[in-house]
C-alpha cells in the first residue's frame, strides 16, 4: 500500500462529503470512554455575584425566559451555539435567581428538568396546575412536556439549582418548546397537592398503583434527611457514604426518567474509596467542607459550590466536617443504552495519589 496514494485518496473523497474510516477509527472508537468534559469546580461566591449582577440587567418576563446562569464545561465549548449548554456531555446545570414579586412565565419543553433549592423561601413553581412552595434542601421535578412557571410571593431572593438533559435532547434532535398562552398557569389544584398526598413517605395513594409521570413533585428536605439518618445505623457504602436516590413512588424508577438525583451524607473524616463509572455527575455542596480527588487532582469544596465529575474519571470524596452532597447524574441514560460499567481503583489501598490542586476562578 502506497501511503501517498492513500493520503491523496483520503483527501479526494472528503470533497464529496465522504469519509475514510481507516483514518477515523481510532478517534471514533476509543478503547474506553474519553470524556470531552473536564473535571471542574465553580465557587459559590462567584455564582452569587454573577446572579446579582444579572438581576440588575435582566428580568424574567418574556417568552418563558429565566434568569439562569448555566455551567459551561470548558471542555465542551466547541459545541456551537452556546456550547450546547453542556455541563457534562449529556447534562446541563444552572443556578437560577427569582426575586420577590417576579414571575418566570410558564412554558413546556421536551427536555426534563429538576431543581434543588439552595437559598431562600417564598417562591413557588407551578407544575400541572399545582403551586409548589420551595424551601432549602427540597428536590423538585418537572419531567418533559409539563407546563411549568415560577412565581415569588415571599420576601427574600431565591436561588436554586436547575438540571436538565438539554445536551442530550439537542444532540439527538428532539427539541420541542412552547410558551404558555398566558403569562403563568392559574392554579387548578390545592397548593402543595402532591406532597400532601405523599406525606407518609413510602406509602402511596391507592390510585397511584400504576405508573405516573410525576406523582410527587416536591421531595422535602426533612424526609430526605430522615431517610439518610436511618441509613446511618448501618455501614456506609464505601464509595458513596450514606446515599439515597430520589425515586418515582408510583413505579420505583428514578424521579426523572433521564436523570438520576442523589443526596449523600459524608460524616466528618469520612474518605470514600476511589472508583470510576461510565456515567457523569454534577455535584452541589449542600452542606459541609471537604475535597474530591478527580483523576489525581484535588478539588476543595465548601457549601454552595458546584463541581463536575466527568464520565470514566477516577474520583473519591473526603469530608472535613459533616457534609451533604446533592448530585445529578446521567446513569438512567447510560442504563437505557446498557453502557454502565464501574471499576474500583485497586492500587494504593484504593486511594489515588494527589498530584495537583485545582485553582478555581475567584471573583
Ligand atoms: O426554570 O423552567 O435553567 O425551562 C433551563 C430551562 C430553567 C425553568 C433552566 C428551563 C428552566
UniProtKB/TrEMBL annotation:
<dbReference type="InterPro" id="IPR047183">
    <property type="entry name" value="GDO-like"/>
</dbReference>
<dbReference type="InterPro" id="IPR013096">
    <property type="entry name" value="Cupin_2"/>
</dbReference>
<keyword id="KW-0223">Dioxygenase</keyword>
<protein>
    <submittedName>
        <fullName>Cupin</fullName>
    </submittedName>
</protein>
<dbReference type="Pfam" id="PF07883">
    <property type="entry name" value="Cupin_2"/>
</dbReference>
<dbReference type="InterPro" id="IPR011051">
    <property type="entry name" value="RmlC_Cupin_sf"/>
</dbReference>
<keyword id="KW-0560">Oxidoreductase</keyword>
<feature type="domain" description="Cupin type-2">
    <location>
        <begin position="263"/>
        <end position="321"/>
    </location>
</feature>
<feature type="domain" description="Cupin type-2">
    <location>
        <begin position="96"/>
        <end position="162"/>
    </location>
</feature>
<dbReference type="GO" id="GO:0051213">
    <property type="term" value="F:dioxygenase activity"/>
</dbReference>
<dbReference type="InterPro" id="IPR014710">
    <property type="entry name" value="RmlC-like_jellyroll"/>
</dbReference>
